[in-house]
Amino acid sequence: MERMSDQPARWTRATVHPDMWADPDTDPRNSEGTAPDGELATLRDYLTNYRLTLRMKCEGLDAEQLARRSVPPSTMSLLGLIRHLAEVERDWRNWISDGDPLPKLYGARDADFDGAVAEQALVDAAYADLTREQAATDAALAAHPDLGERLGEDRIAVRELLVHRIEEYARHCGHADLLRECVDGRVGQ
């Protein structure tokens, strides 16, 4: 006898490998040609792919689905992750700046998650914020191609900041895997 559940059935769009998010031939993270050459190019490539993975985990969902919380008492949602990473990108620029810190995008601590509500205008703004903040952080770091250069008041090495950014996105892509599966059952790498 089959049991009824309010949990969505697991599924994937991949047809070649059912444990993957997308088929390798159509996965936008798969690049043609050789792997990046050098440490800086490799770090940037990993960051780019994790950023793309986060967006892929959110694609095709409406505002309600993006704002849906995982399990109480957590306030985590896919929309909250988008807002959080926009906030974090801004904060990373504060780490490398010698000037006054940029203000928080969403206000007090955890407002990035707490304010993630199911409104399309808020979703659009969150994506715009993320895109803008990623570009601004990338531009700030592009002026410092020496991975050993130390920046900001805390003298953080460019390499350390890039690795930390990769780690942050990778960790939250793991959260996004579980959140997406809770929303509509879609699974994959």
Quickly describe the structure.
By secondary structure, the chain is an all-alpha fold.
Kindly report the spatial arrangement of strands forming the biggest sheet.
1-2
Radius of gyration: 18 Å
Oligomer: single chain
Provide the low-confidence segments as ranges. none
Kindly state the percentage of residues in helix. Answer: 40-55%
Q: What is the rounded distance between the termini?
A: 31 Å
Q: What shape does the CA trace take? A: flat
Order of helices and strands: HHHHHEEH
Helical/strand content category: mainly alpha
Number of helices: 6
What percentage of the residues does DSSP assign to strands (E)? under 5%
Tell me, rounded to a whole number, the average pLDDT. Answer: 88
Major sheet size, sense and barrel closure: 2 strands, antiparallel
Total E-strand runs: 2
What does this structure look like?
- The chain has 189 residues and is mostly helical.
- It has helices spanning 39-58, 63-67, 78-96, 111-114, 120-142, 158-184, and strands at residues 150-151, 156-157.
- It has a two-stranded antiparallel ribbon with strand order 1-2.
- Strand 1 and strand 2 (156-157) form a beta hairpin.
- Helix 1 packs parallel to helix 6 (158-184) and helix 3 packs antiparallel against helix 6 (158-184).
